[in-house]
Amino acid sequence: MTSVARRLPTVLRPPQAQNIGGFDVEKLRRDFPILKQKIRGRRLVYLDNAATSQKPQAVIDAISHYYERDNSNVHRGVHYLSERATEEFENARQTVQRFINAASASEIIFTRGTTEGINLVAQTYGRTHVGPGDEILVTALEHHSNIVPWQLLRDEKGAKLRVAPVNDSGELLLEEFEKLLSPRTNIVAVTHISNAIGTVIPLRQIIEMAHRRNVPVLVDGAQAVPHLTVDVQALDCDFYTFSSHKLYGPTGMGVLYGKSALLDAMPPYQGGGDMISSVTFEKTTYNKLPYKFEAGTPHVAGAIGLGAAIDYVNALGIENLAAHEHDLLAYATEKVSALPGIRVIGTAKEKAAVLSFVLDGVHPHDVGTILDQEGIAIRTGHHCAQPVMQRFEVPATARASFALYNTREEVDVLVEGLQRVQEVFA
């Protein structure tokens, strides 16, 4: 990768000068140009990170550098720009491999995001292995992207979709999950962290339970990779997918990890350029991994930007980020819960960076609208997780979600904003 893409954050300091999380957050915020602006005359307080995170200058520079200096298609050209672009593109793949500790770079497939990664597995592995009467097991915490692809497969194949329940705190009921594993279960598809309420599920136990029955496990890691260390070999998951844009990288870019033996046996997802070895009108032979699943011109700039984002996170240390975000979540939970008429939705013991809540007598959309007038960006609605809302008998929630650049002071501004909401609707 270029020196621009590898540029480290400017905020690392000796331990005695660091705040919670191992870095000076106020200095770190300078790496994010968008945070310097004012919204409606007020300093932007961005608390919608579960939807998408903001991008550091290092990522913006890496993408700009590619378009300014290296813009060319990859894998197909013999000229200098193509060779340089290909090198950076494949360096990004190796960066992802190291980040999640995959056994080989060939197990890293670039996609448009988590959603495409799940659809890829459903339409290749799923179509090959799921038949009439077979079962697909998910949890009650899933994002729509980890429900709808399996419903499409279920309806096509005459299979069944089984759902493992959660308790009133939003924690997965492991005993019930294990009971739902049956001889007809052909795949388990679970979130790592709930985008709607922040629950961290006991992933190791789930994978062990499934593997005892020789059932493969796909993990939706969209909310996990920005907040905790992910080691796919230690987890022993069969598939793991995540998006770049929640990890401080560009939109329209994602990753699907799969074990080589499974990927090798799966048919292609799409047909076209780069996924072929040879083509005649009579027969096509397919390219080796990972290119068999990467038809067409890839999002080269997106891959380079993702690589730069991972470098940025690695320089800070994911453990430091997790500690900082855990402090913010605990502080925000205490402060928001103390306000009268507010109920937190999702109180699992293991949570990450998400605070979902409802205010008595106020629709979440009204909460979000008034907070926006105060320069505070949160998410309101069902968060593409309507079954979660149904489980907790609410139409929607207000959701504040935290990232490495958020501060306790911003939590205080959120609390003041919520008090303003209550005044308006008094």
Topology, please?
Blueprint lengths: L24 H4 L9 E2 L2 E2 L1 E2 L10 H14 L9 H21 L7 E4 L2 H16 L5 E5 L8 H10 L2 E5 L9 H7 L4 E7 L11 H10 L4 E4 L11 H4 L3 E5 L10 E5 L1 H6 L10 E4 L4 E3 L13 H17 L1 H20 L4 E4 L8 E6 L4 H10 L2 E2 L1 E3 L4 H6 L5 E5 L6 H17 L2
Parallel strand pairs: 3-15, 5-6, 5-7, 7-8, 8-9
Antiparallel strand pairs: 1-2, 4-10, 9-10, 11-12, 13-14, 14-17, 16-17
What does this structure look like?
Residues 1-18 have low confidence and may be disordered. The protein has two domains: 32-47 and 317-424, Aspartate Aminotransferase, domain 1 (Alpha-Beta Complex), CATH 3.90.1150; 61-314, Aspartate Aminotransferase, domain 2 (3-Layer(aba) Sandwich), CATH 3.40.640. Helix content is 38%, strand content 16%. 47% of the residues are buried. Strands 4-10-9-8-7-5-6 form a seven-stranded mixed β-sheet, with helices on both faces. Strands 13-14-17-16 form a four-stranded antiparallel β-sheet, covered by helices on one side. Helix 2 packs antiparallel against helix 10 (300-316) and helix 3 packs across helix 10 (300-316). Helix 8 links the parallel strand 8 (217-220) and strand 9 (239-243). With 426 residues, the chain is of the alpha/beta class.
